[in-house]
Protein backbone atom coordinates (compact mmCIF):
# COMPACT_ATOMS: atom_id res chain seq x y z
CA UNK A 1 0.00 0.00 0.00
CA UNK A 2 1.46 3.40 -0.98
CA UNK A 3 0.99 6.75 0.70
CA UNK A 4 -1.54 8.02 -1.86
CA UNK A 5 -3.78 5.03 -1.22
CA UNK A 6 -3.60 5.65 2.51
CA UNK A 7 -4.51 9.32 2.10
CA UNK A 8 -7.35 8.46 -0.27
CA UNK A 9 -8.71 5.90 2.13
CA UNK A 10 -8.55 8.26 5.08
CA UNK A 11 -10.12 11.05 3.03
CA UNK A 12 -13.02 8.77 2.26
CA UNK A 13 -13.33 7.88 5.92
CA UNK A 14 -13.29 11.47 7.16
CA UNK A 15 -15.00 13.25 4.28
CA UNK A 16 -17.50 10.81 2.80
CA UNK A 17 -18.66 9.13 5.99
CA UNK A 18 -17.72 5.60 4.98
CA UNK A 19 -17.46 3.03 7.71
CA UNK A 20 -14.03 1.76 8.64
CA UNK A 21 -14.72 -1.58 6.95
CA UNK A 22 -15.87 0.16 3.76
CA UNK A 23 -12.80 2.36 3.77
CA UNK A 24 -10.51 -0.63 4.04
CA UNK A 25 -12.29 -2.37 1.17
CA UNK A 26 -12.36 0.61 -1.18
CA UNK A 27 -8.84 1.89 -0.61
CA UNK A 28 -7.05 -1.28 0.44
CA UNK A 29 -6.31 0.41 3.73
CA UNK A 30 -5.53 -1.95 6.59
CA UNK A 31 -4.08 -0.99 9.93
CA UNK A 32 -3.86 -4.48 11.33
CA UNK A 33 -0.08 -4.66 10.96
CA UNK A 34 2.66 -2.49 12.35
CA UNK A 35 4.04 -1.59 8.91
CA UNK A 36 0.76 -0.33 7.50
CA UNK A 37 -0.05 1.60 10.64
CA UNK A 38 3.15 3.57 10.12
CA UNK A 39 2.25 4.21 6.47
CA UNK A 40 -1.11 5.63 7.50
CA UNK A 41 0.56 7.64 10.24
CA UNK A 42 2.96 9.20 7.74
CA UNK A 43 0.10 10.00 5.40
CA UNK A 44 -1.84 11.64 8.19
CA UNK A 45 1.13 13.80 9.17
CA UNK A 46 1.60 15.01 5.59
CA UNK A 47 -2.07 15.65 5.02
CA UNK A 48 -2.81 17.19 8.41
CA UNK A 49 -1.53 20.71 7.77
CA UNK A 50 -3.40 21.01 4.47
CA UNK A 51 -6.69 19.50 5.59
CA UNK A 52 -7.35 21.51 8.74
CA UNK A 53 -8.71 25.04 8.44
CA UNK A 54 -9.32 25.48 12.15
CA UNK A 55 -6.54 25.12 14.71
CA UNK A 56 -7.03 22.91 17.75
CA UNK A 57 -6.56 25.91 20.04
CA UNK A 58 -9.39 27.80 18.34
CA UNK A 59 -11.84 24.92 18.35
CA UNK A 60 -12.05 23.95 21.97
CA UNK A 61 -12.89 26.20 24.84
CA UNK A 62 -14.47 26.22 28.25
CA UNK A 63 -17.17 23.86 29.38
CA UNK A 64 -20.10 24.84 31.58
CA UNK A 65 -22.92 22.70 32.88
CA UNK A 66 -25.93 23.47 30.74
CA UNK A 67 -28.49 21.38 32.55
CA UNK A 68 -28.94 19.25 35.63
CA UNK A 69 -27.26 15.86 35.62
CA UNK A 70 -29.23 13.09 34.03
CA UNK A 71 -31.24 10.91 36.38
CA UNK A 72 -29.32 8.01 37.87
CA UNK A 73 -30.02 4.76 36.07
CA UNK A 74 -31.84 2.16 38.12
CA UNK A 75 -29.79 -0.83 39.16
CA UNK A 76 -31.44 -4.01 37.98
CA UNK A 77 -30.65 -7.57 39.00
CA UNK A 78 -27.14 -8.71 38.07
CA UNK A 79 -26.46 -10.51 34.86
CA UNK A 80 -23.92 -12.84 33.35
CA UNK A 81 -20.16 -13.00 33.16
CA UNK A 82 -19.80 -12.35 29.46
CA UNK A 83 -21.03 -9.71 27.04
CA UNK A 84 -24.25 -10.54 25.20
CA UNK A 85 -24.99 -13.62 27.35
CA UNK A 86 -28.41 -13.33 28.91
CA UNK A 87 -31.63 -15.26 29.08
CA UNK A 88 -33.59 -12.02 29.27
CA UNK A 89 -31.50 -9.30 27.71
CA UNK A 90 -32.78 -5.75 28.02
CA UNK A 91 -31.97 -3.19 25.36
CA UNK A 92 -32.74 0.47 24.92
CA UNK A 93 -35.71 1.22 22.73
CA UNK A 94 -34.30 3.97 20.55
CA UNK A 95 -35.53 4.23 16.99
CA UNK A 96 -33.38 2.87 14.18
CA UNK A 97 -35.94 3.13 11.39
CA UNK A 98 -34.69 3.61 7.87
CA UNK A 99 -37.65 5.94 7.30
CA UNK A 100 -35.47 8.77 8.57
CA UNK A 101 -33.00 8.32 5.71
CA UNK A 102 -33.88 11.78 4.38
CA UNK A 103 -32.97 13.32 7.71
CA UNK A 104 -29.42 14.68 7.44
CA UNK A 105 -28.75 14.34 11.13
CA UNK A 106 -29.88 10.74 11.28
CA UNK A 107 -27.99 9.86 8.13
CA UNK A 108 -24.79 11.43 9.47
CA UNK A 109 -24.97 9.49 12.71
CA UNK A 110 -25.76 6.21 10.96
CA UNK A 111 -22.72 6.59 8.75
CA UNK A 112 -20.37 7.14 11.67
CA UNK A 113 -19.98 10.94 11.41
CA UNK A 114 -22.01 13.01 13.89
CA UNK A 115 -23.95 16.14 12.95
CA UNK A 116 -21.21 18.76 12.44
CA UNK A 117 -23.09 21.71 13.95
CA UNK A 118 -24.28 19.95 17.09
CA UNK A 119 -21.80 17.40 18.38
CA UNK A 120 -19.95 18.47 21.52
CA UNK A 121 -21.76 21.79 21.73
CA UNK A 122 -21.19 21.88 25.51
CA UNK A 123 -17.45 22.10 24.86
CA UNK A 124 -17.66 25.25 22.78
CA UNK A 125 -16.78 28.70 24.09
CA UNK A 126 -19.28 31.51 23.59
CA UNK A 127 -19.64 32.56 19.97
CA UNK A 128 -18.24 29.37 18.47
CA UNK A 129 -20.76 27.27 16.55
CA UNK A 130 -18.82 24.14 15.62
CA UNK A 131 -15.83 22.03 16.52
CA UNK A 132 -15.66 20.69 12.99
CA UNK A 133 -13.96 21.70 9.79
CA UNK A 134 -15.11 20.13 6.55
CA UNK A 135 -12.86 17.10 7.04
CA UNK A 136 -13.19 16.63 10.79
CA UNK A 137 -14.53 13.39 12.19
CA UNK A 138 -15.78 12.69 15.70
CA UNK A 139 -12.42 11.07 16.45
CA UNK A 140 -10.70 14.33 15.58
CA UNK A 141 -13.09 16.21 17.86
CA UNK A 142 -12.20 13.87 20.71
CA UNK A 143 -8.51 14.38 19.95
CA UNK A 144 -8.98 18.15 19.98
CA UNK A 145 -10.69 17.92 23.34
CA UNK A 146 -7.88 15.84 24.85
CA UNK A 147 -5.11 18.02 23.41
CA UNK A 148 -6.83 21.13 24.76
CA UNK A 149 -6.84 19.62 28.25
CA UNK A 150 -10.62 19.27 28.40
CA UNK A 151 -10.54 15.52 29.06
CA UNK A 152 -8.50 14.68 32.13
CA UNK A 153 -10.74 12.02 33.69
CA UNK A 154 -11.57 9.54 30.92
CA UNK A 155 -13.67 6.45 31.59
CA UNK A 156 -13.58 3.62 29.07
CA UNK A 157 -16.36 1.01 29.00
CA UNK A 158 -15.58 -2.10 26.98
CA UNK A 159 -17.20 -5.34 25.86
CA UNK A 160 -16.23 -8.44 23.92
CA UNK A 161 -15.63 -6.46 20.72
CA UNK A 162 -12.26 -5.19 21.91
CA UNK A 163 -11.01 -8.76 22.36
CA UNK A 164 -12.22 -10.15 19.04
CA UNK A 165 -8.91 -9.54 17.27
CA UNK A 166 -7.09 -11.42 20.02
CA UNK A 167 -8.51 -14.62 18.52
CA UNK A 168 -10.55 -15.71 21.54
CA UNK A 169 -12.85 -18.50 20.29
CA UNK A 170 -16.61 -18.10 20.19
CA UNK A 171 -18.30 -20.97 22.02
CA UNK A 172 -21.74 -19.96 20.69
CA UNK A 173 -21.04 -20.17 16.94
CA UNK A 174 -21.85 -23.53 15.28
CA UNK A 175 -18.99 -24.97 13.31
CA UNK A 176 -16.24 -23.76 15.61
CA UNK A 177 -14.08 -26.33 17.35
CA UNK A 178 -14.98 -25.13 20.81
CA UNK A 179 -18.72 -25.12 20.08
CA UNK A 180 -18.52 -28.64 18.66
CA UNK A 181 -16.48 -29.81 21.64
CA UNK A 182 -19.15 -28.59 24.04
CA UNK A 183 -21.97 -30.40 22.24
CA UNK A 184 -20.96 -33.68 23.85
CA UNK A 185 -22.41 -32.36 27.12
CA UNK A 186 -25.94 -31.88 25.73
CA UNK A 187 -26.28 -28.41 27.21
CA UNK A 188 -29.87 -27.13 27.39
CA UNK A 189 -28.50 -23.96 25.76
CA UNK A 190 -24.91 -22.59 25.42
CA UNK A 191 -25.41 -19.97 28.13
CA UNK A 192 -26.06 -22.72 30.69
CA UNK A 193 -22.28 -22.84 31.05
CA UNK A 194 -22.59 -19.56 32.97
CA UNK A 195 -25.50 -20.60 35.19
CA UNK A 196 -24.47 -21.14 38.82
CA UNK A 197 -27.22 -23.73 39.31
CA UNK A 198 -26.11 -25.74 36.28
CA UNK A 199 -22.46 -25.40 37.34
CA UNK A 200 -23.22 -26.91 40.75
CA UNK A 201 -24.81 -29.92 39.04
CA UNK A 202 -22.35 -30.31 36.17
CA UNK A 203 -19.15 -28.22 36.29
CA UNK A 204 -17.27 -30.04 33.53
CA UNK A 205 -18.60 -28.02 30.52
CA UNK A 206 -17.46 -24.80 32.15
CA UNK A 207 -13.97 -26.12 32.77
CA UNK A 208 -13.71 -27.30 29.16
CA UNK A 209 -14.56 -23.75 28.12
CA UNK A 210 -12.23 -22.27 30.75
CA UNK A 211 -9.29 -24.26 29.40
CA UNK A 212 -9.77 -22.66 25.99
CA UNK A 213 -10.23 -19.14 27.36
CA UNK A 214 -7.68 -19.19 30.16
CA UNK A 215 -5.48 -16.08 30.46
CA UNK A 216 -1.97 -16.31 29.07
CA UNK A 217 -2.92 -17.77 25.69
CA UNK A 218 -3.95 -14.56 23.91
CA UNK A 219 -2.29 -11.27 23.01
CA UNK A 220 -3.99 -8.01 24.06
CA UNK A 221 -5.29 -5.99 21.12
CA UNK A 222 -4.58 -2.43 20.04
CA UNK A 223 -7.72 -1.40 21.89
CA UNK A 224 -6.28 -2.72 25.16
CA UNK A 225 -3.01 -0.91 24.57
CA UNK A 226 -4.84 2.32 23.71
CA UNK A 227 -6.46 2.14 27.14
CA UNK A 228 -3.01 1.54 28.63
CA UNK A 229 -1.73 4.59 26.75
CA UNK A 230 -4.50 6.69 28.28
CA UNK A 231 -3.33 5.43 31.67
CA UNK A 232 0.30 6.26 30.94
CA UNK A 233 -0.72 9.79 29.95
CA UNK A 234 -2.50 10.17 33.29
CA UNK A 235 -5.89 10.53 31.58
CA UNK A 236 -7.58 7.23 32.47
CA UNK A 237 -9.86 7.54 35.47
CA UNK A 238 -11.09 3.95 35.19
CA UNK A 239 -11.57 1.14 32.69
CA UNK A 240 -14.87 -0.73 33.16
CA UNK A 241 -14.91 -4.02 31.27
CA UNK A 242 -17.47 -6.76 30.76
CA UNK A 243 -14.75 -9.13 29.64
CA UNK A 244 -13.46 -12.00 31.74
CA UNK A 245 -10.28 -12.60 29.70
CA UNK A 246 -7.86 -10.54 31.84
CA UNK A 247 -6.36 -8.96 28.71
CA UNK A 248 -6.32 -5.55 30.39
CA UNK A 249 -4.06 -6.99 33.07
CA UNK A 250 -1.96 -8.73 30.40
CA UNK A 251 -1.50 -5.38 28.64
CA UNK A 252 -0.02 -4.00 31.84
CA UNK A 253 -2.83 -1.68 32.93
CA UNK A 254 -2.69 -1.03 36.66
CA UNK A 255 -5.33 -3.28 38.29
CA UNK A 256 -6.42 -0.29 40.40
CA UNK A 257 -7.62 1.35 37.19
CA UNK A 258 -9.66 -1.70 36.12
CA UNK A 259 -13.18 -2.66 37.16
CA UNK A 260 -14.01 -6.15 35.92
CA UNK A 261 -17.77 -5.76 36.06
CA UNK A 262 -18.47 -9.42 35.36
CA UNK A 263 -15.48 -10.76 37.25
CA UNK A 264 -12.44 -12.53 35.81
CA UNK A 265 -10.14 -15.52 36.05
CA UNK A 266 -7.68 -13.57 38.19
CA UNK A 267 -8.88 -15.08 41.47
CA UNK A 268 -11.12 -18.00 42.46
CA UNK A 269 -13.12 -19.11 45.49
CA UNK A 270 -14.65 -22.23 46.91
CA UNK A 271 -18.40 -22.04 46.31
CA UNK A 272 -19.19 -23.76 49.62
CA UNK A 273 -21.49 -21.38 51.47
CA UNK A 274 -19.65 -21.78 54.77
CA UNK A 275 -16.14 -21.93 53.34
CA UNK A 276 -15.43 -19.46 50.51
CA UNK A 277 -11.68 -20.12 50.67
CA UNK A 278 -9.72 -18.13 48.07
CA UNK A 279 -7.46 -19.77 45.48
CA UNK A 280 -4.97 -18.27 43.05
CA UNK A 281 -5.25 -18.21 39.28
CA UNK A 282 -2.18 -20.47 39.06
CA UNK A 283 -3.74 -23.06 41.40
CA UNK A 284 -6.92 -23.24 39.34
CA UNK A 285 -4.99 -23.30 36.07
CA UNK A 286 -2.91 -26.26 37.21
CA UNK A 287 -6.08 -28.28 37.81
CA UNK A 288 -7.84 -27.20 34.63
CA UNK A 289 -4.90 -27.98 32.36
CA UNK A 290 -4.62 -31.52 33.65
CA UNK A 291 -8.38 -31.90 33.11
CA UNK A 292 -9.15 -32.14 36.82
CA UNK A 293 -12.18 -30.47 38.42
CA UNK A 294 -10.83 -27.98 41.02
CA UNK A 295 -12.15 -28.80 44.48
CA UNK A 296 -11.55 -27.08 47.79
CA UNK A 297 -8.77 -28.51 49.97
CA UNK A 298 -10.83 -27.72 53.07
CA UNK A 299 -14.39 -28.80 52.28
CA UNK A 300 -14.23 -30.54 48.88
CA UNK A 301 -16.73 -28.12 47.33
CA UNK A 302 -16.17 -26.88 43.80
CA UNK A 303 -13.72 -24.04 43.24
CA UNK A 304 -14.83 -21.51 40.63
CA UNK A 305 -12.97 -18.56 39.10
CA UNK A 306 -14.49 -15.28 40.24
CA UNK A 307 -16.55 -14.84 37.09
CA UNK A 308 -20.09 -13.58 37.60
CA UNK A 309 -22.54 -16.32 36.67
CA UNK A 310 -26.30 -16.08 36.25
CA UNK A 311 -27.71 -16.15 39.76
CA UNK A 312 -24.73 -14.34 41.32
CA UNK A 313 -24.21 -10.72 42.31
CA UNK A 314 -21.72 -8.45 40.58
CA UNK A 315 -18.37 -7.77 42.28
CA UNK A 316 -18.64 -5.27 45.12
CA UNK A 317 -15.87 -3.17 43.53
CA UNK A 318 -18.23 -2.33 40.65
CA UNK A 319 -20.73 -0.67 42.99
CA UNK A 320 -18.12 0.83 45.32
CA UNK A 321 -16.44 2.87 42.56
CA UNK A 322 -19.33 3.57 40.20
CA UNK A 323 -20.86 6.73 41.67
CA UNK A 324 -17.62 8.51 42.48
CA UNK A 325 -15.95 7.65 39.17
CA UNK A 326 -18.82 8.70 36.93
CA UNK A 327 -19.31 11.95 38.83
CA UNK A 328 -15.70 12.89 37.95
CA UNK A 329 -15.78 11.69 34.34
CA UNK A 330 -15.30 14.34 31.64
CA UNK A 331 -15.15 11.99 28.63
CA UNK A 332 -16.81 8.58 28.24
CA UNK A 333 -15.57 6.17 25.56
CA UNK A 334 -17.65 3.02 25.00
CA UNK A 335 -16.12 0.29 22.81
CA UNK A 336 -17.11 -3.10 21.48
CA UNK A 337 -20.30 -3.76 23.42
CA UNK A 338 -23.92 -4.32 22.47
CA UNK A 339 -25.07 -2.58 25.68
CA UNK A 340 -27.63 -5.32 26.26
CA UNK A 341 -26.48 -6.71 29.59
CA UNK A 342 -27.62 -4.92 32.74
CA UNK A 343 -26.64 -3.19 34.91
CA UNK A 344 -23.50 -2.49 32.85
CA UNK A 345 -25.52 -1.11 29.92
CA UNK A 346 -27.23 1.60 31.97
CA UNK A 347 -24.12 3.13 33.52
CA UNK A 348 -23.56 5.23 30.41
CA UNK A 349 -26.25 7.45 31.95
CA UNK A 350 -24.29 8.03 35.15
CA UNK A 351 -22.06 10.76 33.68
CA UNK A 352 -23.15 14.40 33.89
CA UNK A 353 -25.41 15.68 31.13
CA UNK A 354 -22.68 17.84 29.58
CA UNK A 355 -20.07 15.06 29.29
CA UNK A 356 -19.31 13.91 25.71
CA UNK A 357 -19.89 10.21 25.03
CA UNK A 358 -18.29 8.33 22.14
CA UNK A 359 -19.45 4.88 21.01
CA UNK A 360 -17.04 2.83 18.88
CA UNK A 361 -18.85 -0.29 17.71
CA UNK A 362 -19.76 -2.24 14.60
CA UNK A 363 -23.43 -1.48 15.22
CA UNK A 364 -25.26 1.55 16.57
CA UNK A 365 -26.60 0.55 19.99
CA UNK A 366 -27.81 1.94 23.30
CA UNK A 367 -30.23 4.57 21.99
CA UNK A 368 -33.40 5.69 23.74
CA UNK A 369 -36.08 8.36 23.51
CA UNK A 370 -36.60 8.31 27.27
CA UNK A 371 -35.30 11.35 29.18
CA UNK A 372 -31.88 10.76 30.69
CA UNK A 373 -31.61 7.23 29.32
CA UNK A 374 -29.30 5.96 26.59
CA UNK A 375 -27.56 7.63 23.67
CA UNK A 376 -29.09 10.27 21.43
CA UNK A 377 -26.79 10.27 18.40
CA UNK A 378 -29.10 12.37 16.23
CA UNK A 379 -29.86 15.04 18.82
CA UNK A 380 -33.62 14.59 18.46
CA UNK A 381 -34.68 13.63 21.97
CA UNK A 382 -32.80 15.93 24.34
CA UNK A 383 -33.22 19.57 25.29
CA UNK A 384 -29.53 19.81 26.17
CA UNK A 385 -26.98 20.25 23.35
CA UNK A 386 -26.02 17.10 21.51
CA UNK A 387 -23.05 15.30 23.07
CA UNK A 388 -23.18 11.71 21.73
CA UNK A 389 -21.14 10.45 18.77
CA UNK A 390 -20.95 7.10 17.00
CA UNK A 391 -18.03 5.69 15.02
CA UNK A 392 -18.91 2.53 13.09
CA UNK A 393 -16.28 -0.15 12.76
CA UNK A 394 -13.59 -2.19 14.43
CA UNK A 395 -12.37 -0.84 17.78
CA UNK A 396 -8.71 -1.58 17.00
CA UNK A 397 -8.88 0.49 13.82
CA UNK A 398 -10.71 3.34 15.52
CA UNK A 399 -8.22 3.40 18.39
CA UNK A 400 -5.33 3.54 15.92
CA UNK A 401 -6.96 6.46 14.09
CA UNK A 402 -7.69 8.27 17.34
CA UNK A 403 -4.07 7.72 18.38
CA UNK A 404 -3.01 9.24 15.04
CA UNK A 405 -5.07 12.37 15.65
CA UNK A 406 -3.54 12.64 19.11
CA UNK A 407 0.01 12.15 17.85
CA UNK A 408 0.33 8.94 19.86
CA UNK A 409 0.39 6.33 17.11
CA UNK A 410 4.11 5.54 17.38
CA UNK A 411 3.68 5.01 21.11
CA UNK A 412 0.65 2.77 20.58
CA UNK A 413 2.51 0.60 18.08
CA UNK A 414 5.55 0.40 20.36
CA UNK A 415 3.46 -0.69 23.35
CA UNK A 416 2.04 -3.69 21.53
CA UNK A 417 5.20 -4.72 19.67
CA UNK A 418 7.26 -4.45 22.86
CA UNK A 419 4.75 -6.61 24.70
CA UNK A 420 4.84 -9.22 21.97
CA UNK A 421 8.63 -9.20 21.89
CA UNK A 422 9.03 -9.37 25.66
CA UNK A 423 6.55 -12.22 26.00
CA UNK A 424 7.86 -14.16 23.02
CA UNK A 425 4.37 -14.18 21.53
CA UNK A 426 3.11 -14.57 17.98
CA UNK A 427 2.59 -11.22 16.23
CA UNK A 428 -0.16 -12.75 14.11
CA UNK A 429 -2.44 -13.12 17.12
From TrEMBL:
Gene Ontology CC terms: nucleus
Domain Deacetylase sirtuin-type residue range list: 132-409
Family to which the UniProt record says this protein belongs: Belongs to the sirtuin family. Class I subfamily.
InterPro entries for this protein: DHS-like_NAD/FAD-binding_dom, NAD-dep_sirtuin_deacylases, Sirtuin, Sirtuin_cat_small_dom_sf, Ssirtuin_cat_dom
GO molecular function, one term: NAD+ binding
Name of protein: NAD-dependent protein deacetylase sirtuin-2
Active-site annotation: 262 (proton acceptor)
Superkingdom assignment: Eukaryota
Entries under SUPFAM superfamilies matching the protein: DHS-like NAD/FAD-binding domain
Keywords of this entry: Metal-binding, NAD, Transferase, Zinc
Region Disordered, residue ranges: 73-111
Cofactor: Zn(2+)
List of residues binding Zn(2+): 270, 275, 296, 299
Amino acid sequence: MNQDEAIAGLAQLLGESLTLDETRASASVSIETTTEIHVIHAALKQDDAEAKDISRDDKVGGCDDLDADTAAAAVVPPSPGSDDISDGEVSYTGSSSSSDSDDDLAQAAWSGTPPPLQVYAPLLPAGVTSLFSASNSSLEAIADMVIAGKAKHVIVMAGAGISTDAGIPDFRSPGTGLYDNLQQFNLPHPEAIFSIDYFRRNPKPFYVLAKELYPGQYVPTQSHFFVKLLAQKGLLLRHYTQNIDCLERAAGIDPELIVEAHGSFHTAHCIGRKCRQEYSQAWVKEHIFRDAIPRCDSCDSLVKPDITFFGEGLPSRFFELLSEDFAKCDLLIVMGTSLLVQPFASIIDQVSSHVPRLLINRMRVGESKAPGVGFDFDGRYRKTPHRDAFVAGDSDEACALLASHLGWLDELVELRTSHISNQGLDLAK
